[in-house]
Amino acid sequence: MKKVALAFDLGGTELRAALVDSEGSLLSFSAVPTHAAGGPAAVIQQIELLATATLAEKPDLVPTGIGIGAPGPLDPEVGIVIAPPTLAGWYEVPLADILSSRFQLPVRLENDANAAALGEWRYGAGRGARSMVFVTVSTGIGGGVIVDGRTLHGRRGLAAEIGHMTITSEGERCFCGAIGCFEAVASGTALGRRATARTRQSDGSMLRNLSADAEVTGRHVVDAARNGDALAMELLSAEARWLGIGFTNLLHLYSPDILVMGGGISHGFYLLHDAIVATVRERAMPAYRDVPIVPAQLGRHAGLIGAASLILGDDAQIGSATSRSESPGHSGVDIPTSKSEAGDD
C-alpha cells in the first residue's frame, strides 16, 4: 500500500490539510478559515473535521502519521505550542499529544517556517543541498535553516527567527517592539506601507488603481512593477537592497549551499534578483558571494509537504516532535466512504 501522511498547515488566517505521499505529491486537499479567536478547543475541532474531509477524498489510503506545521513560538521536541501571537488563547498547548490521542497516530509538530523550509529542501528548490537557508517574505519575514542535513532548532525550537535580526537603526517599530528588524523594513507589509505613503487616494496611479484606492500591498507593488510602473520599480529597487542586506547576514551566519526565497513577494523574484545579488556582492565577504539565491518551487504547499515529510522522510526524527502513539495503523477518526458523507461545514 502507498505510504502517506496526513499533513496540516495551521495559520492564523487559514487551516489547510492534505494527504501527501512519499514523493511529496498532494493526493487530497482541504482548507477552511481558521477560527483563531475561538481558542485551542475550537481550532482542534476544526482540525478533526478537516481531517475527516481530507481522508474522505482517498478512502482507500490510511495515513501512517500526522505532521503539522504551526506558528511559533513552539517546542518541536515535546510537541508544545508555546504562545503564538496569531492564535488567541494558545499558551503551552500540548498539541502533538492532543492530536495523537484523538487520532491514535504518531504526530510530529514543527514550526511552520521550518516545515516550509523542510519541504523546499526535500522536494523543492533546495533538493540535493546539504545546507540551505529558506526565507519567506510575505506579511512578515520568517524562514528555516537546514545545516548539514539537519533542521536547526536551538533551545525550545526557537532558532532562526530571522525576521527579527536587526539590520538598521531606523524605520518603523516592529510588532515585537524593536526598531530596525529585518521584517519591519523588508516584509511585504513594509513594502506596501512605503507604497501607500508615496501615493494618494484617487491620484490615478497604477498602485492605487490596483488596490481599488485602498491601502497598497506588497503584491500590488510587484504587479505594478511587472507592468512597468516607474514608482513600483523604484520601490522594488529599495526592497531588493533591504533583502540583500538581510540575505548577506544570513549567508555569513549559516554559510548555506543555497538560499531559497519564498512568500508572496517572491512572485516578483526576477524583478528583485539582480539588485539583491548586487547588494550581496557589495557587502558579503568574497567566500560568500557565489551562493545561489533562487525562488522557492513549492509555493503555498511547501509547509504541508514539509509537515508530511516529518512522517515520511528518512530524517523524520530530525528534531521534530512527538507524540508517543504506538498505534500507527489506525486513525481515530471515522473515514467516510465518500466525500459527500464528510459534509461541507
Automatic annotation (TrEMBL):
Residues 319-328 have a biased composition (Polar residues). InterPro entries: ATPase_NBD (IPR043129), ROK (IPR000600), ROK_cs (IPR049874). PROSITE patterns: ROK. The keyword ATP-binding does not apply. The keyword Cell membrane does not apply. It holds the Pfam family ROK. Residues 319-345 are annotated as: Disordered. GO terms for molecular function: glucokinase activity. It comes from the Bacteria. Gene3D superfamilies: 3.30.420.40. Keywords: Kinase, Transferase. Its EC number is 2.7.1.2. Belongs to the ROK (NagC/XylR) family. PANTHER family: BIFUNCTIONAL UDP-N-ACETYLGLUCOSAMINE 2-EPIMERASE_N-ACETYLMANNOSAMINE KINASE, ROK (REPRESSOR, ORF, KINASE) FAMILY. This is Glucokinase. It comes from Rhizobium paranaense.
